[in-house]
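Title: Prediction job returns without error message
Component: structure pipeline
Severity: low
Priority: P3
Assignee: unassigned

Description:
Job completed but the reporter wants confirmation the result is attached to the right record. Sequence as submitted:
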Amino acid sequence: MTARLENRKPPTKGASKLSCEPRIGELDVSTHIGEFCNAVVKSLNPPSLRLVQSGKSQIQKVACVPGSGASYIEAAARAGCDCLVTGDIKHHDALMAQAHGLALVDVTHTATERAAVAMIANALKNLHDVEVVQSEIDTNPFTKLV
């Protein structure tokens, strides 16, 4: 399964200039949400994954927001996304996503930021005369018991 990352963001209202902006990508082919979740687990190795189903079993257009991306649910839906991958989804956010026909894949705040840190470090390494040292410290305060 491969994805093509679009070089644009869904429109947001009132987003902080310091916030992480979502990215949108399209899978090469429409994919079953369960298969997509398995690929996300293999890629991000999250401590857990929670799925909020939208009523559609197939997805193709996916938004990703590192950290806590619930504030982008409506923007992702307006942009025509089938799914949003992020962390820290609350109950009412999940209900709102379902009302918009948007699946949510919650792989924890830490797992989504860990992936973003690697991408940012790689991008910075391409800058002239900049040494980048990526931290290996995982500051996830949660311990999975079950």
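Comment from assignee: result matches the submitted record. The domain at 22-125 is CATH 3.40.1390.30 (Udp-n-acetylmuramoylalanyl-d-glutamate--2,6- Diaminopimelate Ligase; Chain: A, domain 1).
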